[in-house]
Amino acid sequence: MRPLTCLQACRQSVQLGIVTLCLMARWTFQVQGEEVSLHIPQPNVNTTVEQNILLSVAYTCEGTPIIMWKHTSPRGTTKIAEWKPGSYTNISSGFKDRVNVYENGSLQLLKVDLRDSGYYLVTVRDKFGITIYGTILLNVYGMKVIRK
After folding, report:
1. For residue 55, which of 144, 125, 139 has the smallest C-alpha distance?
2. Which residue intervals define the domain Immunoglobulin in the entry (predicted)?
C-alpha cells in the first residue's frame, strides 16, 4: 500500500507546482505591462489609380512601439517603412516620396498605381519584444492614364 500513497503525494506536488508556475507567469506578465493590441477598422480597401489612400490602424501598448509596414504581392515582399513614434523613421527608397507615416501606426500611400495592389502587413512590437501582426488588402482598379 505504501507505493500508492507515495504516487498520490507526487501527483499532488506536481499539480501544486503547475498551479504555482501558472500564477508566477501571470504575475510576471502583469508586472511587465499591458497587452499589445492592434485594431484595423478597414481590412479591405478598394480604390482607383492616382488616389491617395490611408491604411488606418490603431495600437495600444506600454511605452513606444516599433512599427513596420511591408507590401506583399505576387511580385514579392517589399519593406515600406519602420518607425518608432517620436524617435526615428526609416522609409525605403522606393517609397520615399510616396508615403506618409503617422504616430498611431497608420500609413498613407500617395497616388496609388495598379502595382500597389496586394497585402499590406503591419507589425507592432513593444519594448518587451511582444509582437502583433495585422493585414490590410488593397485593391487598386482602373487604368493608368499616360499623359503626353
Report:
1. 139
2. 42-141
Residue-wise pLDDT for 84-140, tens only, equals 999 999 999 999 999 999 999 999 999 999 999 999 999 999 999 999 999 999 999
**Rounded Cα distance, 2 and 34, in Å:** 48
For the purposes of burial, counting CB atoms within 10 Å of the CB of 37, is it exposed (0-12), middle (13-18) or buried (19 or more)? Answer: exposed
Asked whether 88 and 98 are in contact (CB, 8 A), the reply is no
Q: What single string gives the DSSP state of each residue in 82-119?
A: EEETTTEEEE-GGGTTTEEE-TTS-EEE-S--GGG-EE
pLDDT digits (tens, 9 = 90+) for 77-100: 999 999 999 999 999 999 999 999
